[in-house]
Specification:
This protein is mainly α. It contains eight helices and no strands. The radius of gyration is 29 Å and the shape is elongated.
């Protein structure tokens, strides 16, 4: 490793030291907390907070954990999984409704969306088997959201679509169920 010698005239060096020292002292001498200082790490920098909490857990420093926020975040993760399942079910039902009630506009894109949503729902349920009991309860809400999606994307009158879901959960999730007139693309 090479050493590098830097030369500063003494007068300039003392000016730099004094200038830095003055600025530092003026910043640290104020006893007034700034708004940023009053916020917890959780509120100021969520990513840094997650890394800190993970390290505390790994190091088994449980007494230093930010338990109220940690509990809230863990609960939130579970809610996100349920919400993702409900959203995917809504998109799937919306596309099944479009498939059934607007057959002249069917596209490979609709077919792909139906298939992808089914695959993603199955994967979500495999990763989170405890979500399965919520599926039946989600159907009514997912149908209403799917109906809204279908009405918005087709410009068909709302009376075109049923007001309650006429598909069973097993049908909705089945890779062989496509309501309405048959289509040759399904078997490809």
């Amino acid at each position: 490793m090479r050493s590098v010698l830097l030369w500063f005239p003494y007068a300039e060096l003392s000016t730099i030291k004094t200038s830095w020292k003055t600025k530092f002292m003026s910043l640290s001498s104020s006893n007034e907390p700034t708004p940023a200082n009053r916020l917890s790490l959780y509120d100021r920098d969520f990513y840094a907070w997650t890394q800190q909490q993970a390290k505390l857990l790994r190091d088994r420093h449980f007494h230093h954990l930010d338990l109220p926020n940690l509990i809230e975040e863990v609960e939130s993760l579970g809610k996100q999984q349920r919400q993702e399942l409900r959203n995917r079910l809504s998109v799937l039902i919306g596309h099944l409704l479009k498939w059934e009630f607007q057959p002249q506009c069917r596209s490979r894109s609709w077919l792909a969306t139906i298939r992808i949503q089914r695959i993603e729902i199955q994967q979500l349920l495999e990763d989170n088997p405890s979500l399965k009991p919520y599926l039946e309860d989600m159907m009514a809400f997912a149908f209403q959201q799917g109906r809204n999606l279908a009405m918005g994307e087709t410009d068909l009158p709302s009376a075109t679509f049923p007001t309650t879901c006429e598909y069973g959960l097993d049908e909705v999730l089945s890779d062989r169920f496509f309501p309405g007139e048959p289509c040759g693309w399904i078997d490809e």
